[in-house]
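TEACHING EXERCISE
Course module: macromolecular assemblies
Task: Read the component lines below, then compare them to the predicted structure of the full complex.
Student: A.B.
Group: 4
Components provided:
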Amino acid sequence: MTGTGTHDVLAAQAHGFLSPTGVEIVFLLVGVVTLGAAIVTVTTRQLVHAALWLVVALGGIAVEYLLLTAEFIAWVQVLIYVGSVVVLLLFGLMLTKAPIGRSPDADSANRPAALAVAVAAAAALVWVVADAFRTTWIDLRGAPQGTTKVSGEILFRHWVLPFEALSVLLLAALVGAIVLSRRTERENTERKNGAR
Amino acid sequence: MHLVYPAVLAVLLFCTGVYGVLARRNAILVLMSVELMLNAVNLNLVAFDVWLRDTLHAGQALTLFTIAIAAAEIGIGLAIVLQVHRNRGTADIDRLRDLREPDGAGPQQPADHDEKAEAAA
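Instructor-supplied answer key:
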């Protein structure tokens, strides 16, 4: 009796201030905002605005991770996606001299086909997924499953080898990006001759 | 929480990304849509990890790996797009048509084929 009472108190403390129904409502609202921002990202004609709406979509996904008690991944999402990937994309837009205002040719000619494919895929997948998981509930009570402590323990206890392999991959990507983007000696001389 | 909510949200985000990849013309906008698709997959991984209460937390570990690989991918992708823009003066995907098949004909033009055969003979 006392044991369950303590457990309930601990669970309530561990789960924060939202009731289970509250979590569902907030998840749905944030999901609607995320989906809306994603749709604006792929349909807007202003390229810089697309990158800024992508921030809203990715931030919304970070909040969804928090609601699913995956706290560490939420902060990693904020750091890497919102913090660096979007900045990289904005730099890319700047360096490719993207037009600042409205650009009429942001969408290519196969837009109706793309819309048909996306709507068909969405209908099929939503039908299958909703039918398959209609009686499944996630149990969010109890200790949070994605705290930094838990994530660090599993990452460095069970996933060390993939983690180190990933660091090699990141290093390779870094070197590759530098090699791709530095000018060769021949290009430099050509550029100088062209300037003269 | 009902498992359908995160699953359906991930499906819809993925299809939004598919639409963006197919419909956009600028290469950087295509990369943004790819990021949306990757995030949909990550949301699925986290939701199923929390649902299954995996002791190894494979879903969350895999999400971290996906995020790192996406960061590497966007770095390399932007380097390639910048290089293409420097060489061609455009980052529009449908203007990069060097590898397309010739217009108005099938995969192989019969006349061409004959000429090549004659040349080979």
